[in-house]
Amino acid sequence: MSPREVGHFRFSSDILRRLGEELNPSVEHGIVELAKNAYDADATEFTVTLNNVEKQGGTVIASDNGEGMTSQDIRDGWLVLGQSRKGATKRTAGGRIPAGYKGLGRLAALRLGNRASVVTRHRSQKDLEYRVDIDWAAFDNVALVEDVDLHIKIQERRAKTVSGTEIVIDGLRSAVSKAEVRRLARALILLSDPFGDTPRSFKPVLVAPEFEDIARLVETRYLVDADYHLSAKLNAKGRASASVLDWKGKQLFSATHRDIAISRRGEPYECPPVQFDFWAFILTKDTFLGRTSKLRDVRAWLDAVGGVHLYQNDLRVSPYGNPGYDWLDINLRRAQSPEERPSTNNSIGKLLVLDEDFHLVQKTDRSGFIETAGFKELKEFAQDCLEWMARERLSVANRRREKQRKQAPTRVLKAKEDIERAIKTVPKPAQRQLRLAIQAYDTQKDREVVTLRKEVQLYRTLSTAGITAATFAHESSGNPIKVIHQSINAIKRRAQTQLEQNYDTSFAKPVNAIIKSVDTLGVLSSATLSLIDHDKRRVIRVDLHKVINTVLQTFDPFLKGRDVTPKAQLADASPYLRGSEAAIESILTNLVNNSMTAFETEGTSNRTLVIATEVEDGFVTLSVSDNGPGIAGVSKRDIWLPGITTKPNGTGLGLTIVRDTVTDLGGEVDAIEKGTLGGAKIIVKLPILNS
Amino acid sequence: MIDSVEITRVSVIDDDPPARDSYELTLEDLGLQAVPENGPLGDMNTCIGVVRSKADAALCDHHLKVKAYSMFNGAELVAKLYQLNFPAVLCTNWNNASVDEMRPFRRFIASLVDPKTLDPHSLRYGLESCIMEFKGDFRAVRRPWRTLVRVEDMPEAEQGVPFIYVAVPAWSAEIVRLPSTVFPEGIRKALAPGFRLHAKVNLGASGHEELFFEDWE
Question: Measuring CA to CA, which of A360, A420, A586, B11 is 20 to 30 A from A617?
Fold first, then answer.
């Protein structure tokens, strides 16, 4: 029996590249990790200097005034990669909760260059400093990481030096672009909450003009210009509370846990305590009138440092709040319901999470927190707070609109009083003339108001009819028709089996008639639902001929049911319009409806309906003609007016809708009282895209 | 016996009593016994328990929430039953809006039948499709393939869940509307017109209502 051999996991020197530059490739992430090390060392300052980094081979120097390291700290801490956070929750001598990171970000930073060195002076060792030089090339020639010795040199401290650590990364492997410098500057400024009311105890600085620009923006306190400041708190028991202040600091709304957690029926949030502040701006010239800040400056500031930032124990966690990373779906929710909601362009926020036990755990590649239940709860709390604020703002907006509507008559009266006062200032003979002129104007205006009110009422009535039809379309197409289909098909199947030849002679005709009629009935609901389809209201490139064919197909059972023979005489070209399918359908449907009404009124025989198109000079001319009675009993000019109809129960809105829709599409309408078919011909001229 | 699986009783789930009765005619002609669910159906788990205890398969309408019959729609129920290897056919009228509702569950709806075309033959075919899929055998219209999906448009939502318009070049030039909830949350944030991603899609689908998307990457 041979003695048992012992093996160990060992790491190939390649692992340094994998865990360094490959896992965490950005300059920003690496340097921020060094800043966090400085924070853990109780530094108050952390300064990064970039020398000749715009090209390969440059140098990065990162220094802090923290407590520095002993040789043991270097050997057992700084040089140990991937050490876990366990046991690191004890506060530092300065009372900070250490970030206690795994050292992989530091490795990424050190490997930005071909060489790195650290010089550190511990607070308790006044005469000494330690130095470690790393030449990464040395690792290329060995198999295992531990094959390269890193010497911790002890040297005499230079005169007048304070404690702290200086890291020099030399011979940068690649150039650092201006955009990267700007991202780094932003990340360092935002690392330790710069928006708080108390002075920061940790100030990272990048010696670069980009940093100064952003620092200047951050120092200016634009937060006071926010139109709405949401301040929300989540306590240790998971209970939320919130309030919203206006830009003068007046409280507008306040909420209890139940108001905020409405979608979760008041259940507590299971995550660490949070303070959430969110500032929303109304970026219009009007709102900035009378304020000291300029709209332009606030926009620039929001552009530079906007976003909802997340701080865990005072240090910012990336990528929350980074440009383009809308982690609270603020823009998505605004898209769903735009009124009174902020977007990421006009808001800024921060969540301060006190998480001493590190319930929220960051991913190794520093791309945010692992999506644990705790993190999801935190996110839901923030989103619920924003939802609550949106609900409150919407409610205020509704009340404002209602008030304006009620106040309108009072305002008119006041305006009239103003006019009367003005009239009294002119000579008496002119006063009488002015009063008569204004009286005549009022009469005309009142008539117009009455007409408009009637029109609005008619639109409302028709909308209600449409909504009701759409609501019950499911029922009509769903259940009764389904039952008739199933039953008649069963009758057909069973009768065919049981009666054999007799089925064809006795039952085939009535059964087929029922099946055909049910199909026609089904069209009513499918056509109604088809008209309100969301897709059709999108403004897109619309294929006119396709829409014409679809409308004719939809109407086919109705047209057949009324003995109408439709004909499509479409141009060889394929005209495309900029608009919505709903708009084109609206034009066609109303024109086809008009023709059918005309046939019915007159009792026309051999009913013919022609839809034709012609393409010429960047326009398509669409015409709908019939062989009905033509335009009679009303002038050609008036047929477009609302409420003008020759049918007892007509709405008189069809052609008005056609005219308005065509105008919206940049086109023109015309009519011929008696066209070539003998009946009315409505002509619509529309600009096309493919001229 | 349908495709070697013993099916004798079929649960009929529809909020309209005459509709339930009418389905019975088709089931009888296929030699099956209808077990009507008169409702209310209770919560999803209760409903699934009841259906599985009384029947061997289900025939279900989608619009179950019009009356106080159910708290969920048929697409979700059929998908849940399918995931438990319980054959279920969704029989419903559909328009674009109901296709949107069904889309998140479409992968687990092996058979969608228009009531107009429901007869013993199409019902048997639908049940067979389920049983085949439980064995990993997909009909051509349902077989998923890894393919490219391109985001074409992301208009602002008028109401409710926003829609993402995508093209599946390997399927057709037709643009397909998908509720944004079809995409995993992590991917949703990255979506923008022109964005390309991969998913498993049943490229043999004959209409957009049959398409399902899974395993986004």
Answer: A586
